[in-house]
Write a structure and sequence with these properties.
Layout (H helix, E strand, L loop, with lengths): L3 H14 L33 E3 L5 E3 H19 L1
Antiparallel strand pairs: 1-2
Length: 81
């Protein structure tokens, strides 16, 4: 049984082996809470909230929003490097 740290270490090793890379967001990155439209962070969002609407009127599915925000953060970081 592996802990997450060991799993991630092995994942990085195998990705280098196959000429790929692994990107991980900061643990506290607000991927679900961040509005992909206006950048507002919804601090009132709970785990029970599966869909939420931002003040800019954009409606978000929590998981899809998080995936889009993580992809955007990764692209921004890689383009800056």
């Amino acid at each position: 049984d592996l802990g997450f740290g060991e799993f991630f270490r092995r994942l990085e090793y195998k990705s280098r082996w196959y000429g790929s890379s692994v990107w991980a967001a900061d643990r506290w990155f607000p991927s679900s809470r961040l509005c992909g439209g206006c950048g507002t962070i919804n601090r009132d969002l709970t785990l029970a909230d599966r869909v939420w609407t931002c003040g800019c009127s954009l409606e978000h599915d929590r998981d899809a929003n998080a995936a889009r925000n993580l992809l955007a953060a990764m692209n921004l970081e890689q383009n800056a490097a």
